[in-house]
Amino acid sequence: MKSCLKKSFKKIAYSLFLPLFFLSACKNIDVFEKNTSIPNMQWQNNFNATGTFNITDTVSTYNIYIVLRHTDGYLYNNIWLNAGLKSPGDTSLHSQKINLSLGSDATGWEGAGMNDIWEVRKAISGIPKRFIKTGEYTFTIGQIMRDNPLKHILSAGLRIEKAK
Question: What pLDDT digit, counting tens, does each position of 71-118 carry?
């Protein structure tokens, strides 16, 4: 009888404490990522990848990345983008042109690839950015290449990570 009670107590203890142990190892990661699919893998110059994100911490700094997915069929080693950001309460969009390197003839595509699909994640600037205002920010990313439509682009987006 004692051994049966002892086994029951062990089962109860494991069922209560084991999940708590694993949950205590979980850590909240401050990351936002939003990607917009490009219709038919043909990025028209009047189509923008867009999204919104919320900032509650204006003390911390953040790394901001452009995330782009393309196929092996993409014809160039780079892509020119127009990235815009609108702060909460502002009526105008602050934009900048970005020349994003995707690869080279000598070394091939940059980023992570699987079969014929490649994803590249590149920092917009070398230093983390601090957001001045709390609230909802809006971003847009458009292609400004000469080709219209720009073929073999699957998606474009933004990733924001709290800097360590």
Answer: 999 999 999 999 999 999 998 889 999 999 999 999 999 999 898 999
Q: 90 is written with which tokens?
A: 């502002």
**What's the token pair of residue 95?**
């934009």
Other C-beta atoms closer than 10 Å to the C-beta of 69 total 22
- Domain borders along the chain are 30-162
User: pTM to 2 decimals?
Assistant: 0.79
Residues sharing a CB contact under 8 Å with residue 163, sequence separation 6 or more, in sequence order: 60, 61, 62, 63, 128
What is the sign of the dihedral through the CA atoms of 30, 99, 121 and 156? positive
Question: Does the 30-162 domain belong in CATH 3.40.50.720?
Answer: no
